[in-house]
Amino acid sequence: MAADETLVPPGNWPCDPAGPHTPVAHGAGDVAMLAEGAATLGELSARQSVCRACPRLVAWREQVASSRRRAFRDERYWGRPIPGWGAERPRLLIVGLAPAAHGGNRTGRVFTGDRSGDFLFASLYRCGLAVQPTSVAIGDGQRLVGTRMAAAVRCAPPDNKPEPAERDTCAPWLVAELRLVAADLRVVVCLGGFAWQAMWPVMRSAGFAVPRPRPAFGHGAEVRLTRLHDPKRRARQESPASPQVPDSVLLIGCYHPSQQNTFTGRVTPEMLDAVFVRARTSAGLETSQQLLSASFDHVISYAPQFFPKMAQGANQNRVTVLLLSAQSIA
User: Fold this and answer.
1) Would 2 be classed as within a structural domain?
2) Residue 8 — very low, low, confident or very high, per pLDDT cuts 50/70/90?
3) CA nearest 223: which of 193, 255, 200?
4) Whole-number Å distance between alpha carbons of 184 and 182
5) Burial of residue 193, with CB atoms counted within 10 A of its CB: 0-12 exposed, 13-18 middle, 19 or more buried
6) Which of 11, 235, 271, 320 is the most exposed, having the fewest neighbouring CB atoms within 10 Å of its CB?
7) If you write DSSP's letter for every residue of 158-193 in order, what string do you get?
8) Stretch 54-69: mean pLDDT
9) Which CATH number fits the domain that encloses residue 209?
């Protein structure tokens, strides 16, 4: 692949939200202006996906996209900011830290194509919040149920560590996303301490009263935030389809499903499931899907990934049988 073909220009990716004429943010002021001016989630996603406001992050994401990991050397990387995705009227919002260099930065979808995402989507599937147990690429058929997913920082950072200034520059994108889904939102799950801390100024900017001192992060920690009464803000956030903006939103902390946390047992499938069952119930997302057992289905949901030949040709039915067996046994 030639060097000048490695980076993806707007409009040249499956389901690309942006096009050649999408306005580009080149600094913090641009981000604030373009985020505030986005009237729809589609417009917001397009503007997020071409942002170039943080030079360090732009350089890193594009360097990774050009060099590529050996396992993915024949793939083209997305190499741009990752917009939020999922339900357009979510009752549950999941917020992570930032895209993985060879995960979301490669696939164009957050928590897609990396081990953290494997762990996360297996849990979401067991809890009835995703229609498939894996998320490998845009167009793979994955869909979130009443749920939306976003990152506090939209670009993959070096060493997976965004700088505070980068977090603050990126914050208006998340504030705008929260504004556009506020009419239906009931619960926010923060994956990791970084997302937990990043959400406080975002929630304050979205019109919620933030407690002082700020509650400490922990797995299963819960804080209910009450909306401040502002008639002008409320009028902007109301939609004809859902006129009653909720008076409060529940924030839930969850250990990040990083490889370090999952390999050491700091977070287990059962722990992740407990958070998402709680979130689903609190958000009013009742589902007819039978909840699967983490102890059994955590293994079964990985079958297509660890036994790829079983997912090809005539053997694909064997994976389907395994997945159906998980549901019947659980």
Assistant:
1) no
2) confident
3) 200
4) 5
5) middle
6) 235
7) GGG---HHHHHHHHHHHHHHHHHHTTT--EEEEESH
8) 95
9) 3.40.470.10
